[in-house]
Design brief:
Number of domains: 2
Order of helices and strands: EHEHEHEHEEHEHHEEHHHHHHHHHHHHHH
Shape: elongated
Number of strands: 9
Radius of gyration: 27 Å
Strand content: 5-15%
Number of helices: 21
Largest sheet: 7 strands, mixed
């Protein structure tokens, strides 16, 4: 027997037609069946229509929830109550042609697969949808394969079948209850060795789709990021290797620069420049807090500038201590304490990352072009600039999944808002450059353009999740750019600059943790 589940939230206009079409199709495929309407706290009368359908058709059952559970929990509850050994679910809009139902069920009942899923992205698939949604879908699914190790082409098609006992086991560990549920189920299934089959389908987007392109796309990408972080966080071997890599890189840099020279240079650092740098860097955190509060306000949430500053200090502290951006999740956790939803804070962080990346890339490219124009060989300047553009392009693909995909940020922010955030971001990065420049004054009077390029490239490289806090990779990149000053001076500037910023960040972070009565154990959990 098969159980066909239709998750329904405010589907009064189309639930009746959908149920009748499913019944007619199910009768023709040769299996005993039931149809379960998993009605999820509807407010438009869907519950009454579903109850009437259950009375009218012996094959129909209605499972009602008084409150909105979310798609994932509604499906899980329906699977628990299902009578069939095979459970099928499909979206009420019936975007997938029902002619594929028999093939879907046969994949499990006859061929022995654990899961079968419709796919709009296989060679023989035929999908009708707007171009922007098609592109977003391909980018999204590519990221799932790249970051989460999936081999599935299309994770989000609302047309799937499962062995009932298999899906119930998987559901125990699925954390998402919204649109990401399908992806998380398929990723977990593959990691546990279950057999999954993709079926090419004919699919046509419903005119009345409930997927909100901008906000829901942002949410989906944030969930990819969440799963990726969870996997990295649980990988102790990764943590050990990344820490050892940082130590090795620093030792190699010190060796080539000369241990004695580096030590002598550190002793020569002028205290007044350290104080100036520290003041600039601490003040920059308040500007970061103001920028983040501004972004949150555009997403219909509010916080004080002080609270935003504290949350950023905490998240950056966690980032310093780990080779991956767990700090972003830590910040989301802090904001949840003042009732800002995770999705909202993650959206704000994504926007912040997007503008950070844009700003630092603009500074890097401008500095590279300006320095290149000063060189005696125009061809070298051109090659240098092209390589820099390529580096920024490639590294941007790895820096914060949410931010780099948020191409439709204009749906969340007005053009004026974007300009304001970009201006704040550029000022913030110039304050970072100023800190490094002040430290460099202890030894030389360097070119502002050279320091700008060094800080920009070092931060882009630092974004790669190779070492905790980018320690080692940051110094290596900056030393390479500043090497014309002499290797020992370049490495010392990079070492002192990064150490000062990290020490101040951790101090601010622990002060913020204490003032908000949060422990590192809370963040870890």
């Amino acid at each position: 027997m098969i159980s066909i589940v239709l998750p329904a939230y405010n589907e009064a206009k189309r639930i009746k037609k959908a149920v009748e079409r499913v019944i007619n199709t199910a009768k023709s495929i040769g299996y005993d069946f039931e149809v379960i309407i998993a009605e999820d706290g509807s407010t438009d009368g869907t519950d009454k229509i579903a109850s009437e359908l259950a009375k009218k058709y012996a094959e129909v059952r209605h499972i009602h929830s008084n409150e909105r559970l979310g798609r994932g929990r509604a499906l899980k509850n329906a699977f628990k109550e299902a009578k069939g050994d095979i459970v099928v679910y499909m979206d009420v809009d019936l975007s997938t042609d029902l002619k594929h139902l028999k093939e879907l069920v046969d994949s499990i009942a006859v061929e022995g697969y654990d899961i079968a899923t419709g796919s709009r992205l296989l060679k023989d698939s035929k999908a009708e949808r707007p171009v922007k949604r098609a592109i977003a879908s391909k980018v999204y699914n590519s990221l799932v394969r790249l970051l989460l190790g999936s081999k599935i082409k299309d994770h989000q098609c609302g047309f799937k079948a499962f062995k009932r006992d298999v899906i119930l086991k998987i559901c125990e560990d699925v954390k998402d209850n919204h649109w990401f549920w399908d992806t998380e189920v398929l990723v977990l299934a593959q990691k546990r060795g279950y057999k999954v089959k993709e079926i090419p389908v004919v699919w046509k987007q419903s005119e009345d789709t409930k997927v909100r392109f901008g906000r829901d796309s942002l949410y989906m990408f944030s969930q990819i990021f969440r799963m990726w972080l969870e996997e990295k966080r649980s990988d102790r071997k990764y943590m050990v290797i990344s820490t050892l890599s940082a130590i090795l890189i620093m030792l190699l840099l010190a060796y080539f620069a000369g241990f004695e020279k580096v030590f002598e240079n550190i002793v020569r650092v002028k205290p007044k420049f350290l104080v100036y740098s520290a003041v600039v860097y601490v003040l920059s955190y308040f500007l970061r807090g103001y920028r983040f509060e501004y972004i949150l306000s555009r997403l219909d949430s509010r916080s004080s500038i002080i609270f935003s500053t504290q949350s950023i200090a905490i998240s950056q502290t966690v980032n310093v201590l780990t080779p991956i951006r767990i700090g972003d999740l830590a910040r989301a956790y802090v904001f949840k304490r003042i009732d800002v939803p995770y999705t909202t804070s993650l959206a704000a962080i994504a926007t912040e990352r997007l503008f950070d990346l844009l700003s630092i890339s603009l500074i890097a490219v401008f500095s590279a072009v300006a320095i290149g124009m000063m060189l005696s060989t125009p061809m070298y300047a051109m090659i240098f600039t092209i390589l820099l553009f390529l580096a920024v392009f490639l590294l941007s693909r790895m820096e914060n999944v949410i931010g780099k995909i948020l191409k439709d940020v204009k749906r969340v922010l007005k053009f004026k808002d974007s300009l304001v955030i970009l201006a704040f971001s550029i000022i913030l990065w110039f304050s970072d450059i100023l800190v490094c420049y002040l430290i460099a004054l202890s030894y030389v009077r360097p070119s502002v353009l050279l320091i700008s390029l060094a800080v920009a490239i070092a931060n882009i490289v630092k974004a790669l999740p190779i070492t905790p806090g980018g320690i080692g990779t940051y110094e290596a990149a900056m030393t390479l750019i500043l090497s014309k000053l002499s290797t020992d001076i370049a490495f010392t500037i990079a070492l002192v600059d990064h150490a000062l910023k990290n020490v101040l960040t951790v101090l601010l972070g622990f002060v913020s943790l204490a003032s908000l009565n949060i422990s590192l154990k809370d963040l870890k959990k």
